[in-house]
Design brief:
With 118 residues, this protein is an alpha+beta fold. The protein is built from two helices and five strands.
């Protein structure tokens, strides 16, 4: 016989729970949370806030890459966007990817000052 049989040495029993076996899994989850999940949640929150601040006159870029100006906010989900002279399309608010140029905010202060003068 050229191959001798191998006999098991003193094998350990099925030992108890060891925290060191879970440590690599916990570390992997922590790394994924800070490198992938948390930045993605922050980006989604910023996009939602940007969508809430859309108003008439803003130049926007849709997710399809079309640049246009908001002519009318139809309701909370739809916008009327002019993409060329006389060409208006209805766009879902969620499909706006970024604001190209923002219009100036309307100040209510001059109207209040005129009331105080009277």
């Amino acid at each position: 016989m050229l191959i001798s049989p191998a006999y098991a040495q003193a094998a350990g029993g099925p030992g108890g729970f060891d925290i060191m076996t879970l440590l690599p899994l916990v570390l992997i989850f922590v790394v994924f949370y800070f490198l992938l999940i948390r930045p993605q949640q922050k980006k989604v929150k910023e996009h939602r806030e940007m969508l809430d601040k859309l108003r008439r006159g803003d130049k926007v870029v849709t997710s399809g890459g079309i640049v246009g100006q908001i002519m009318k906010v139809l309701n909370e989900n739809e916008l009327d966007v002019e993409i060329s002279d006389g060409v208006r399309v209805r766009v879902m608010r969620g499909m706006i990817s970024s604001i190209y140029a923002r219009t100036e905010a309307v100040d209510d202060e001059p109207a209040e000052k005129d009331k105080d003068k009277k």
